[in-house]
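Hi, here's the filled form for the chain we discussed.

Project: internal
Contact: R.S.
Residues: 367
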Amino acid sequence: MKKVIYLFIAFVLFSCSSKPHYTVKGKIEGSDSITFYLQKREAGKTISIDSAVSRKGSFTMKGGAVEYPQLVQLVAGNTRKRTSLYLENSEITITGSLDSLFKAKFSGSKTQDEYDNFIRSNKPLSDTYSKTVIKYQAASQSGDVANLSILEKQLDSIQTEMTNLQKNFVKTNPASYVTPSILVNLSYEMEAEQIESMVNGLDTSIAALPQIKSLKERVTVMKAVAVGQKAPDFTMNDVNGSPVTLSSKIGSKLLLIDFWAAWCNPCRQENPNVVKVYNEFHKKGFDVFGVSLDQKKEAWVKAIADDKLAWTHVSDLQYWNNAVAKIYAVNSIPANFLLDETGKIIGKNLRGQDLYNKVNEVLGTKK
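And the returned structure, exactly as it came back:
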């Protein structure tokens, strides 16, 4: 009878231990008595999954099954020292140094191996890009305009190659759990139809993941604000706290909905171009409706004055949670939408000379 009980207990223990779970073993030099956290981003918030205190540089975390391999961060205490890894149901080993945690090495995660291989394949281009950026900065500081133009073209060419490598990975690895992160990164520079095409090429298991579901929702929003569509109406408060609707601004021959923020350097660099177009064509029917993704009203109002932005401005001071930005699928700024007098979108993300040319095409003296 005892033998049967022992066998039963052994069976139960084996059954429990064989259930899918993750184990993370760390060997981080210089990390004695440091609390390490496994964290992930979910619904815009940072969530701690697990934690462990290192003893003489070693720690172990054990948890239940994760639904699918997902990108998480290993964070050292309340510091900025961290590294990213793919957590899955396996025994994962992390080795490195606290002072250079971002360089940590991993073993035991198939998905992490796929990601590391992808990074290695991109390294030659990444290194070339970094070296070219240094040259560009030097040329900018020295005022070498001729060389700046050459280096800009080189950077654009390298970026195109890097983008193509990422797209190729997505297409040739439709069932990889690395693919969603790469596709999300690519989507910032893609139109709705391109995103939809790549999503449709994914394995059904990957297409069901939260990241891809969010992309599908984004595609729906993007299609609603594509060129040729009527711009969705909205109401938001101006600098005086008074509500202003988009529909109240429509009627000008051309209206530019301009998404920007005081804290956004590229936006501030673009503002003089918008001011130039506004000053030249405002009397001919061109107007601007500024939507700010600021958080602090003082900074927002000061930037309007400093940059001499003499048009209507609105904001809910909610940063990236700006309600209008969500309606217009804006996830990077500066961004803009050019509307005709009926409120139809006739152009998107027109900057610098492109904006001038489009407005001049419609409102120029030859018209």
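Let me know if anything looks off before we file it.
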